[in-house]
Backbone:
């Protein structure tokens, strides 16, 4: 965003002689396999069918329009990454994601694939922002680094904190009876954590639906609501007053992402913890929400922060600040991005607000086997790399054409 301090400033500083003490990734030193050079980077736009639409304030996801990235090296190893288009969250469309990867590609071709920090410095030097595209590339490089070193991605990110993680089940159909049915189905499947999409009706109707779902789920569950910026301040205040005491544990992004004053006002008016999602794109954003008492927890996504290491570092910052964390994928991301999120959730200090894996909402995935979940939980992935096998025939089946402008040097020769 204009005026926002670069979230990558600290990475740039690592190229200076005074590298900061950090708990971050050091694959270049201890976790690397044989040297491998990046030889090709291909952005692949896909449109995946959803089992059913997810209805949110400002957005209806009826198909998942995601960009996959396939990176090949001179060792023959291939890494995969992914980022969802998210026009109202990151500003990314499918077309802009693909265009950004085309623009970034010359900065990465020929580089050491295991030097992921160096790749970020190179990408940031060539293009500001565009965290979605950078996240997809970062995930593919981590997949490669893990495969090359024979280690799961989580082992490249830190020490394993847990082997089984509760999934946050999204109840997002937007209608009273359908959502009640969906919540009951998820409870029967073993889910212990839920997110109800609100901000799509009047505060009174959304509150009535929330209260009914909370009553149906009963005590002992983690239940959240997410307005996706859909309420005005007064509407959000009316909503929290109407759901006070019904069992709702936290309420995410009630109002516009940049209105921290309103977030703080709502937080002060209710005992329900307020969370931030669309307002969090950097570690500075997390600090500002904590300082302003605008949120007690955050939803963290790779596409907002620019990759899995940035996601893990943000999670660790939340641990330092005493904030709750939900590690999340964007609606409709496949098992590739979901695996990346799962690796981060395996190593950060707390995931008290659960893990949101959105591939379970897809009617078709791009891996040979969808990432395995069961009884409302996911287990850590302990195979090398991301630990999922992409089925390229599935990728081809769901591929959509995106026109790309070929970059040329001033002399007229192809830039890559
Ligand atoms: Mg959210």
Residues:
């Amino acid at each position: 965003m204009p005026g926002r301090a670069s979230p990558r400033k600290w990475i740039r500083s690592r190229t200076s002689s005074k590298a900061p003490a950090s708990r971050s990734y050091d694959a270049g030193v201890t976790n690397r396999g044989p040297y491998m050079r990046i030889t090709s980077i291909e952005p692949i736009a896909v449109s995946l069918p959803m089992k059913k639409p997810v209805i949110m304030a400002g957005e209806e996801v009826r198909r998942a329009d995601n960009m996959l990235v396939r990176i090949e090296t001179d060792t023959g190893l291939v890494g995969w990454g992914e980022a969802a288009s998210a026009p109202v969250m990151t500003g990314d469309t499918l077309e802009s994601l693909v265009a950004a990867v085309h623009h970034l590609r010359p900065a990465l071709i020929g580089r050491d694939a295991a030097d992921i920090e160096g790749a970020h410095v190179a990408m940031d030097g060539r293009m500001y922002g565009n965290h979605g595209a950078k996240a997809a590339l970062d995930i593919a490089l981590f997949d490669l680094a893990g495969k090359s070193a024979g280690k799961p991605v989580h082992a490249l990110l830190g020490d394993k904190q847990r082997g089984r993680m509760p999934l946050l089940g999204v109840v997002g159909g937007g209608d009273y009876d359908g959502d009640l049915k969906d919540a009951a189905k998820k409870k029967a499947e073993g889910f212990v954590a839920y997110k109800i999409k609100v901000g799509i009706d009047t505060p009174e109707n959304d509150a009535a639906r929330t209260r009914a779902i909370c009553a149906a789920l009963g005590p002992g569950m983690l239940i959240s609501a997410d307005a996706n910026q859909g309420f005005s301040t007064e509407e959000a205040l009316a909503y929290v007053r109407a759901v006070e005491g019904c069992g709702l544990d936290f309420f995410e992004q009630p109002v516009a992402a940049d209105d921290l004053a309103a977030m703080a006002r709502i937080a002060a008016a209710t005992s329900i913890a307020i969370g931030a999602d669309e307002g969090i794109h950097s570690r500075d954003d997390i600090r500002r929400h904590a300082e302003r008492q605008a949120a007690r927890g955050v939803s963290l996504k790779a596409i907002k922060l620019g990759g899995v290491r940035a996601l893990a570092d943000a999670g660790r910052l939340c641990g330092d600040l005493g904030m709750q964390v939900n590690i999340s994928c964007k609606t409709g991301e496949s098992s590739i991005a979901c695996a990346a999120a799962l690796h981060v959730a395996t190593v950060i200090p707390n995931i008290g607000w659960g893990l949101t894996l959105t591939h379970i909402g897809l009617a078709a995935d791009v891996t040979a086997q969808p990432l395995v979940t069961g009884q409302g939980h996911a287990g850590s992935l302990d195979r090398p790399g991301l630990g999922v096998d992409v089925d390229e025939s599935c990728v081809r089946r769901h591929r959509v054409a995106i026109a790309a402008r070929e970059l040329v040097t001033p002399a007229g020769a192809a830039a890559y």
Q: What stands out?
A: Residues 226, 228, 252-253, 277, 299 surround magnesium ion (CB under 6 Å). The chain has two domains: 9-151, 156-388.
